[in-house]
Design goal:
Length: 290
């Protein structure tokens, strides 16, 4: 699965975006990669791009599934229908502090027959409401809820002290989400991995605990066509306008392996817990003891 940024990431540092023809070239490039299944178009806000429908059609013509990650404020019933005609199959809608437009967007997307994930960014100011947000998403017809811990990268670095979660906060959020998932019957998973030294998956049977797939079965492409292991990772492996995906992966195999083997703490080197968290999120580590 590829995550493609189709809107400017940072107006102060952004480079010119790819044109539709250039995006078509990138999509054809990655469609040749072994196991390429689909692309999630994200941003920023991808619906601000006037040719998003054409981009999705090209993705489908390349034989890949297309998903859209949006904040939902521009996602009306009419827009949902037109995106479906273009070939969209899945919506990932930000549900951290859902405004009225966002709640309506979830309902409209769910009504369309497309699958819908409500993505909650859990941080210091909302972790106690995680269960309520899960229940709300289920009531609106979402198929799944993604629980994403706040990650202090990019502009988030300026808010790390005020928004980053402690272990106690994480456990509180997981407990409330677990109760809501079991009560509402909605599939709930950790979009950002939670290490087993922080929380044991067996203690939360209503939540599917994920592992990091970045640089393995999930890759990020920015709005200039640069390939990265993860949307949180600033390190550029290569540009898909200039090189084939397979060539970049082979050339930078050492960098990718180092990313995959990365350990956030000395605690990881002596871990004796069962299972394999695969290092958790490379950009976030919450010590197992507050």
């Amino acid at each position: 699965m590829f995550c493609y940024n189709v809107w400017l990431e940072n107006s102060e540092q952004s480079k010119p975006e790819l044109t539709l023809n250039q995006i078509e070239k990138v999509l054809h490039n990655i469609s040749k990669a072994p196991g390429a299944r689909g692309v999630t178009f994200t941003g920023g806000e991808p619906l601000l791009r006037s040719d998003i429908h054409e981009i999705i059609r090209v993705c489908r013509q390349c034989g890949m599934k297309a998903a859209l990650a949006t904040n939902g404020t521009l996602l009306t019933e009419k827009t949902v229908c037109s995106l479906m005609e273009s070939g969209i199959e899945h919506f990932d809608i930000g549900f951290t502090e859902p405004a009225g437009e966002t709640r309506l967007a979830v309902a409209a997307a769910a009504k369309s027959g497309c699958t819908v994930t409500a993505s909650i960014c859990i941080h210091k100011n909302n972790y106690e409401r995680t269960g309520i947000l899960c229940e709300m998403a289920a009531a609106l017809g979402a198929d799944a809820v993604a629980l994403n811990r706040f990650i202090p990268t990019g502009r988030g670095k300026h808010h790390s002290q005020s928004l980053q979660l402690s272990k106690k906060d994480i456990l509180t959020a997981l407990s409330s989400a677990n109760r809501a998932a079991e009560t509402a019957g909605i599939y709930t998973y950790t979009g950002i991995p939670v290490e087993p030294c922080i929380a044991r998956g067996a203690d939360y049977p209503g939540i599917a605990f994920s592992t990091c797939q970045c640089g393995e079965s999930k890759w990020a492409i920015d709005s200039s066509g640069n390939l990265r292991t993860c949307e949180q990772n600033s390190e550029i492996l290569g540009n898909l306008m200039k090189s084939k995906f397979s060539e970049i992966v082979i050339r930078d195999a050492e960098k990718i392996n180092l990313f995959r083997q990365w350990k956030p703490s000395d605690i990881c080197n002596s871990c004796t817990l069962p299972g394999n968290c695969r290092g958790g999120c490379r950009f976030l580590f919450t010590p197992p003891v507050d």
